[in-house]
Amino acid sequence: MARRLIQLFLGLALYGLSIGLMVRSGLGLNPWDVFHQGLAERTGLGLGTMIIIIGAVVLLLWIPLRQRPGLGTILNVFLIGIGADASLWLIPPVQSQPLAWTMLLAGVFLNGVAGGAYIGAGLGPGPRDGLMTGLVNRTGRSVRLIRTGIELFVVAVGWALGGTLGLGTVIYALAIGPIVHRMLPVFAIADNTPEPVLPTIDCCPQH
Fold this sequence. Notes:
By secondary structure, the protein is mostly helical. 75% of the residues lie in helices and 0% in strands. It is built from ten helices and no strands.
């Protein structure tokens, strides 16, 4: 349990850092963070605060889907948002394109490492992953179909609200699945249950 908790906390903190790097690059965010940023721009709230609010709202949607959160699920709601705001406070905006690309690629890679770490801890999926698996169980549709539908919806709404949609979004979509797939065997603890892991291998992690 000690290893699980340490791995979970470090994974969630690293996930927040990866969001900060991608935001500061200005080259595009993952679909959910395009949505979070768009809402933050419209409401005047901080990005991390919006991540926490949306995470809590999504978690409420688990109730009719009969999904059961774990400790990792609850901590996910709060710690990623806190980590994102902390990283944005620490990392200044950049003007150099080479530096921006370096930050983007580092952010995507660290996001995959972080996803492998917190999922591998086996203490519960993130709220957005749970929403996906709950809808899959309820509708009988494939993981890919449900995941694609959710992400197309949030990225379209987020972009319309002013979120940063760019080449980095495409790079994230193409790279995150293979990175997490490689990282999971490194971080997975032997007696993990498969439920929070398999859907994420099939596509990509979401906090």
